[in-house]
Amino acid sequence: MQNTRNRGVAPMRWVQGRRSRLYLLVLVAACLALLGGCERSEPDRAQREDRLVVFAAASLRDVFTAMGEDFKRSHAGVEVTFNFAGTQELRTQLEQGAAADVFASADQRHMAELVKAQRASSPAVFARNEPVIVVAKESAGAIRGLADLPAADRIVIGAPEVPIGRYTLEILDRASRSMGADFRARVEAKVVSRELNVRQVLAKVRLGEAQAGVVYRTDAQAAQDGVSIVAIPPDINVIAEYPIAVVAGAAHPGLARAWVDLVLSEAGQSALRRAGFLGPSGGGPGP
Predict the structure, then answer these.
(1) Whole-number Å distance between alpha carbons of 250 and 244
(2) What values do phi and psi take at 23, rounded to 5?
(3) Confidence class of residue 93 from pLDDT cuts 50, 70 and 90?
(4) Which of 10, 170, 174, 193 would staple 236 via disulfide (CB 3.0–4.6 Å)?
């Protein structure tokens, strides 16, 4: 009787073992299929790069927007999204983890801080820009040069943390050496607001909220006949340098690199020169 029961248990154990091995084989096959899918997904993801996010200084709005249209024509199906703002604001957003592929700065200082924080790498200077004084049309006769600036009743400049604001203060310090030690103080006494980007400075002058302000030449040119432009003497002026870099951890690294290449290419440099930017290594403005 005992032998009969043992003979019944053995076949049952054999069946259970077979089922276990079969289940194990199915499980392994499923895992291998899943791993194979993961291996294929990486190149597929790279091939599906269809969006580019560019953070750029406000002074680049016009030229980058136009270049974006050219980029989309040569990259079918790609959406280009821009975030134009003051360089310091963009840097803060990136430091706080904002998603972007490319950062174009209006100065070296903010870019250097992002590189130090490992949020950007290998920046390249792609353009330079020249600050000028913009004067409201009704005040054009009274402000013909930098020396006349303290005569204005209302002046608007960039905030100190904004590149154009820092350049403005450096220009005023340089001017104080030849126009009187109190020149900067006399100008600052007439400042009615300090703006967070250069386009806000320009807008207040165009709208008559201020008689004069300091902006980049490219912004002044974009205003066309809305303001008068007064040059700053070369020995006093400060030339802004614009670096560009791919953002660390960019979601679309291929497109980011393609955008940087476009900006540094002859076509990109020609577009920048036409907009009034100076070349990255001493080249003059375009026609």
Answers:
(1) 14
(2) -65, -40
(3) very high
(4) 174
